[in-house]
Amino acid sequence: MSKLSQIIAENELSSLLTKNYMGLELEEHRLLKDGRISRYPYPAEFLSRRHNPYLKTDFADNMLEISGTPTLGTDANLANLAMLQQLVTDHLQADEIIWPLSIAPAFSKDDLDFAGSFNTRFWMAEYHDYLQQKYGTAREIFTGVHINYSINQTLVRSLWDHGFNEDFATLADFKNALNFKLAQSFVLWRWLFTYFFGASPIAGNLPSNLPRDLRFPVRSLRSSSYGYANQKGEEITYDSFEEQLAQLKQRIDQHQFFSMHEFYGPVRLKGRGDSLADLQNNGTERLEFRSFDLDPFTPARVSPAALNFLELFLINALLQPLPEKLAEQLKLAAQRNEQIALQHPAEVFAWVKPLAAPLIKQLRATAAQLNLPDKYAKSLDLAEQRLENPALTLSGQLLDHISPQGDLLEFGLTTALADRKRIAEYTEPLAALKGKCSASLQSLIRQAVELGIKVRLDQHHLHLQLKEHEEIFPIHVTFDYQIGPREYLLSLFPEVLKINNDQQ
Fold it and tell me: Among the four residues 88, 136, 211, 411, which has the most C-beta atoms within 10 Å?
């Protein structure tokens, strides 16, 4: 038994292993109903993209970035996404849709030029232009899901207090070691996640770095070295935390990277602040898993099965030792991921199942040992089915929808229009909260999100917060607005207009 497992067992900490916070971020394109880029401005009702914690734009002005509040549990995370997706969809123009895939459809030269050059985020202008020149528009307009994961902080502190304070100089060092172990574990098995959840089989807009002999369809162009990745020769190591920080610092100091945000690795360590020094001095607060393609077969664009599989994988990774000859294994894992990402979706390498099956068995044992809910076992059942039949993977399912012309335009438009129709039929201001709070409170939450006021909903109360200013309401309150929910919020938080006065 490892020291970590022993401390958990002796101090009855196992219940904390599943009480970890997740937060989901989606990147999505606003397009027109014919597949062209939408040139409508960002909805003015959302106020400042610079300050709103939920609603932003990414590289191109038509690329939405929505961020759900971190919560415990898969269901709550997906509900947060559903709320934001409903809100965004309700503000679309009549001829707009939200594209459901990580790869955009083939754009005209005018549309590509617009995506690459039109930028109204003045505070990001220099970075935007830098990315466009270095990576090209076609690579920068890939979209996906970022899954933020935070190990239970009570567990971290208990592990530190009950023995790991003898092994590390500071709590920050321990946090970094613990989180980096999970990052390494994910990188070791990234190829399996690409196999299960890769969903970018074609290139609507060809990146300039593609080799001439690359044959489509593939499993996940975005997850390959030709997709959402740093330039060849500028990859960042996962051999050790110290080496990774040193490489990142060197890249930034030598102006090879614009900032730490240019690190496009599959998982990043995130601190409270926004600097390498903060990460080193104060420790990792969360991990950001960045290699998940949008799932077009689920409305949230990330499935419960994917989230449950990832969470169980990370719980198990915390308990299990890393392999020997780690640097060699990490190098081999990177090669495997490239092979899997660029493989035809109907095919599967002979080595996949023999390597994956023992992991699945170990995950089942961990789930049984911790007496985890059935949802984790169901995610493993699906994983085993996909190991047996690659047609059940996301990319395998997409094969049936690729047109004779080699695109997914009709499938993407049909899916997007169905999503818009479904959301248009909602009768509640926020359908995900139906039965949990009144329609009037849902309206208040909608307006708070639009105004960039932080929202937290627990079993009894709604918490609204803007910097140090907090207002609390009983969850079952019903408002009879005399001036409307937006005006009411502005009367409570008049400072919101000052904070958002750039209107960008």
Answer: 88
